[in-house]
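Support reply, case 0932

Customer input (verbatim):
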Amino acid sequence: MQRNWFCKKYWKMENKQSVSIIKIGGNIIDNPTELASFLADFAALEGNTILVHGGGKSATKLAQSMGLVPQMIEGRRITDAPMLEVVVGVYAGQINKEVVAQLQANGANAMGFSGADGNLILSDKRNHPTIDYGFVGDVKKVNTTLLSSLLETGITPVFCAITHDGKGQLLNTNADTIASELAIALATQFDVTLTYCFEKPGVLFDAEDDTSVIEQINPDLYAKLKAEQAIHSGMIPKLDNCFNSLSKGVKQIRIGHHRMLQNKTATYTTITL
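Our regenerated output:
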């Protein structure tokens, strides 16, 4: 009996299903033609897939039209109560449902989620010693039991950048971080590939030259590129998330244009330890 249990457990470990988690950047969300092209490529992927999206510039534009002044610190949005209403409406409402509708039109059985739905992503309200980020959440736990069940039934989950604290409070959460935390949580059960799709073909040596793709980045090269300021701004937290994910069991991480999803010859950046 004990030997049979061990053999079954070993077989499951050696025969993990694969799951592809793909996060799309705001510039894709903001471009209807590019978004439609991406969603067609995404819907054509085989196997288990999960999509994570942010909000692009839509939340900022709506906030400004309402007389609100968006505030950002190190690429992170300060989310006070009025701004939270805006981002929840835009991220979990308009954008999420438009993405789901387009995926359904492309033949993918997509279903939209915030972290509050099914208690899928639980977060803690950020407590920073000097900066009041407002209603911003840091991911605490992913409901892998429900998420795995959704994948097993053929559902394609589509996550917006809204989570909750389990006490009735919605929280704005960085979409790159959500993708990373989903990947880490599922890595115990699946072979996870995490892909960040944006408007560029990969991480570039020269931001003005799309042919200067760095095809592979390891921690040593990353440290060198940061010291030379070849990598800076919003790319730093993205790459920090990547290395954290790899160290916690994620199998593969790629960064590049969405054409790599269907074009096997496309150039992109692979992150390695």
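We compared this against your earlier run and they match. Two observations from our side: The domain at 18-271 is CATH 3.40.1160.10 (Carbamate kinase). The chain has a mean pLDDT of 92. Please reopen the case if you see a mismatch on your end.
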